[in-house]
Amino acid sequence: MAAGIIAWLYQFQEGLIITDLSNPFSWGLYVSGLAFFVGNAAGGLVLSSSIYMFGLTKLKPFAKLGALTAFANVTAAMLIVLPDIGQPLRLWHLIVYPQFRSPLVWDVIVLNMYAILSLAYLYILMLPDLTGKLQKIAIKVKDPLEFSEKWAKRLAPLALVFAASIHIVTAWIFSTQGGREWWFTPALAPDFLAVAVSAGTTIVLMASVLAFGIKDAYKEGYKTMVKIIAAAFFIHLFLMYNDFFIHTWYGAESSAHTLGVLFKDYLAAHAFEVIAPLAAVALLLNGKVRESKAAIIASSSLLLLGVFIHRFLLMPPAFEAIPLTFNPIGLQEIFWSYPVASGRYVEGMDTFVDRWNYFPTWVEMIIFLGVLAYMYFVVALASDYLPVIKKEQEVI
Amino acid sequence: MRRGWVIDLEKCIGCRSCMVACKQHNGQPPGTWWNRVFTPGSRENQVAPEKGKEYFLPVTCQHCANPPCVKVCPVDATYSTEDGTVLIDFERCIGCRYCISACPYGVRQFNWEEPKKTLYKAGYVENYTYGYPKDFRKDGRLVYMPVRFKGITEKCHFCVHYYEEGLEPACVRGCPGGARFTGDLDDPESVVSKLIRDRDGFNLLPEKGTKPSCYYLPPRRKENLSYDF
């Protein structure tokens, strides 16, 4: 975390020149990180609200962890976009001069709402257990247990709405860009939802296994979570390949241009984003694997790694396929990209490029890992100091 | 009044004078170009593609009537004026680069580092800068400054500072072939409207629905083509 802050200060001093971004490839690891953490955040609350709305009581012991991981991830999502901003000291412009046609403004609103809501939800769920030293922060109500139950039920539908909206709106940031064939598809928002339910639930599963271990009382709950993870991941695969299929079948040059980036230059990464989570799902669906704490953690990590690669792959086919590409007069068989000024001066390097192969620099990676560490520490610290898991342990 | 321009590809000789004039007048640091000229189908400008036709295509901000960049800007830093010119308020921009991503024409340029640093790296004397030396404000908003801030976006502003003085943009004045015309697209009798009508003016990427204010006139013929049937 400290390294992440130092790396950010260094970037603040030098400018975004220390990233590997350029004018043709203007968003990279940070914005992928936004999509990644937003995805991880959602599943958490979708899960906890489904307990109260759909009566999946088996999942009840994990509700608090769901809300906690949701809070940690949605704040991590907001943190990871900060280093992407060229003028971070002007961020207050977002509050003073919001331009409401911009999906980014909607995203800022829903992400903040979701952070507040998941914190409130967590607080209400913990209320009956806020005793001893923690009594100071408890609001005084007659019957905390009943109060908690009642308000959790009331908040659940609202939480579900915002849980869904953070994915939809984050997807809209990309899918409203008519210039980028890779993103300009109605499949993107539902796909973001599917990936989020899968990844978010995986995070809760991991946190639960770490906190509670493998006990008979929880096995059914874990099984239910794995079913949700698997179903959501298959829906994601369907949405993704359905989109590829339609574009490939129609066979427009622009689609071939975009999909070519994925299937030629990033084929290994694409294979990983599909096969790793598939393997993880297959392992988790196996009852024997679920007997081992280490196996569950390993499989979940594999799935999340696959999802991370999926999020990273949001960028290359969007930016390495230059939108101003056309058949020059008299050259119907050539699909030619109009070069873009890179915006970076490096001696001996071409200023104009028709393709920019981006790979994050170490500064970008350290900042990203710093935010990942922040997310982990929020979950770990809250689990230690707050009654997120205590009550259940006493019961057993 | 909708300010627009027409570029006659028949007259364009691909000399890149407009690029250089634009760069010099508007103080763009090394690596940054608001205006570009290329030879479609060829990697190098002024080199004919192996097959097909040699022509030259200047591309700068298209000042769209349905500008994706303006719609995505979260802080209203980039905006359309009443005459359709798309400008950037350098004091407002937060540097999120959403507009760079949203623009299909690749004309938006980011200041990845302090422009003065880039100039120094490229071999200029320390603190040397070029370009129109004064700040220019329109409606109180800083739409031109000779040395931009680090971490903000910039692009062609249709030489709004010269327009107010009654002058043509730097690229128009710098074009030796007289291939660039500006005028009112709303007035059917203006030079630009007539050229678009009479010479089949077209836009770049019309399928994106951006409605550019920049029109091109197709090139006719640059050499005697022999057809082998």
Task: Summarize the helices and strands and which ones pair or pack.
The complex is a heterodimer of chains A (396) and B (229).
Chain A: H1 2-14, H2 29-54, H3 63-81, H4 93-96, H5 103-126, H6 144-175, H7 188-212, H8 216-250, H9 253-265, H10 267-285, H11 293-312, H12 316-319, E1 325-326, E2 336-337, E3 340-341, E4 352-353, H13 362-385, H14 390-395
Antiparallel strand pairs in A: 1-2, 3-4
Helix pairs in contact in A: 1-13, 2-3, 2-6, 2-7, 2-11, 3-5, 3-7, 3-13, 5-6, 6-7, 7-8, 7-11, 8-10, 9-10, 10-11
Chain B: E1 3-8, H1 17-25, E2 36-38, E3 57-59, H2 68-72, E4 78-80, E5 86-88, H3 98-102, E6 109-110, H4 115-121, E7 136-138, E8 141-144, E9 153-154, H5 160-163, H6 170-174, E10 180-184, H7 191-198, E11 214-217
Parallel strand pairs in B: 1-11
Antiparallel strand pairs in B: 1-10, 2-3, 4-5, 6-9, 7-8
The main sheet of chain A orders its strands as: 1-2
Widest β-sheet, arrangement of strands of chain B = 10-1-11
Q: Which CATH class of chain A?
A: Mainly Alpha
Order of helices and strands of chain A: HHHHHHHHHHHHEEEEHH
Q: Quick check: average pLDDT of chain B?
A: 94
How many structural units, i.e. domains of chain A?
Answer: 1
Class of secondary structure makeup of chain B: alpha+beta
Question: Which key phrases capture this entry?
Answer:
heterodimer, A: 396 residues, mainly alpha, Formate dehydrogenase/DMSO reductase fold, two-stranded antiparallel ribbon, 67% helix, disordered C terminus, B: alpha+beta, 3-stranded mixed sheet, 19% helix, globular
Task: Describe the structure concisely.
With 396 residues, chain A is mainly alpha-helical. Chain A is built from 14 helices and four strands.
Characterization of this structure:
The complex is a heterodimer of chains A (396) and B (229). Chain A has 396 residues and is mainly α. Chain A has a single domain (2-320, 355-395), classed as Formate dehydrogenase/DMSO reductase domain (Formate dehydrogenase/DMSO reductase fold), CATH 1.20.1630.10. Helices cover 67% and strands 2% of the residues of chain A. Chain A has a two-stranded antiparallel sheet. Chain A has a two-stranded antiparallel sheet with strand order 3-4. In chain A, α6 packs across α7 and α10 (267-285) runs antiparallel to α11. The longest helix of chain A has 35 residues, at 216-250. Chain A is globular and about 80 Å long. Residues 392-396 of chain A have low confidence and may be disordered. The termini of chain B are far apart. The longest helix of chain B has 9 residues, at 17-25. The model of chain B has no long low-confidence stretch (mean pLDDT 94). In chain B, a hairpin with a 2-residue loop joins β7 (136-138) and β8. By secondary structure, chain B is α+β, with helices and mostly antiparallel strands. In chain B, the strands form 5 sheets. Chain B has a 3-stranded mixed β-sheet with strand order 10-1-11, with helices on one face. Chain B has a two-stranded antiparallel sheet with strand order 2-3. Chain B has a two-stranded antiparallel ribbon with strand order 4-5. Chain B is globular and about 45 Å long. At the A-B interface, α5 and β3 of A face α2, α3 and β6 of B.
